[in-house]
Amino acid sequence: MHFKQVQLVINFIRRKIDSLIYMDNEDFELAAVKDKFNENCDYVHVKKNSFYDAYMNNDSLLCHKWEQYMHIYNKHLQPFKSENKPVNILEIGVFKGGSLELWNRYLPENSKIIGIDINPDCKNIEFHNKNIQVFTGSASDKNFIEENFKNHYFDIIIDDGSHISSDVITAFEAFFPKLNPGGLYIIEDLHTSYWSSYGGDFLSKKSSIEYLKRLIDSLNFKYIQKFKKNLPLDYIRQLSTLNKELASITFYDSVCILEKYMCKKSRAFKNYLSGEGAAYSDLGMLCNKDTKFERFFR
Ligand SMILES: C[S@@+](CC[C@H](N)C(=O)[O-])C[C@H]1O[C@@H](n2cnc3c(N)ncnc32)[C@H](O)[C@@H]1O
């Protein structure tokens, strides 16, 4: 065996151990949860056309998602369902192809579904729908992305690929610019960002979760001007660029969702006043029935 192969095997075993430890801790934690908290728990009624419905009614290719992802996808993809217009979706990480078929079942008719996987076997998966397409290559290979996705733009991008912190960051930097206005960039399985076998660690500057936490400051870029001189230029540039495009960052257990503005924020948000005393104040713009609000959010 070559040195590289030995390294791959060692990494594989370390990852298995990391996930086993995670499972054990999870059971322990769950057992410790007090009943009071559980009293508020309820079941979700699986409605027709909901995400739960699309996930559970899978009689085709294997798909792998965690329990909380059902709720997260049901909530965040609802606006795309309500608009009922075809969407372009990209998922990094095809595996057996089940999730690509899931998007096809769940999203509006005629949506275009694209998957990327490093495993060349994924090219041979037989999908039941023509609007599903698979590209084989690495989502962290800039040349592969440039060659294949130069003119591709997506409404939804999901990173369910290697889950290695450096790959997650490289993919985000390459693909976030390819998100359409109002689009969502969704990163799954972020628990791996705490594992050294995935290039992460708790509070490590190199971990994907810490990288994402740092992006929060782009939302409030206007308010950090006076600290700029103490920060690396690259980071300032990134925050400034994202400030115009990044509308929100939502964190869940293992998942992060980054939402793009509907239109570029090329000015600061306005301060509107309504109600008693508004007319006599010079604090901001007056708001009345005819006020038109620019649509920044989906
Ligand atoms: C967790 S599985 C994907 C599961 C699938 N999305 C689902 O929900 O059923 C991860 C996949 O990512 C692929 N992968 C690993 N590294 C990758 C990379 N650098 N670029 C693209 N795909 C990668 C693996 O081959 C594997 O099929």
TrEMBL record:
One family from Pfam that matches here is Methyltransf_24
Instruction: Name the Gene Ontology biological process terms.
Output: methylation
Full protein name: Class I SAM-dependent methyltransferase
For this chain, one GO molecular function annotation is: methyltransferase activity
Q: What UniProt keywords apply to this chain's record, in alphabetical order?
A: Methyltransferase, Transferase
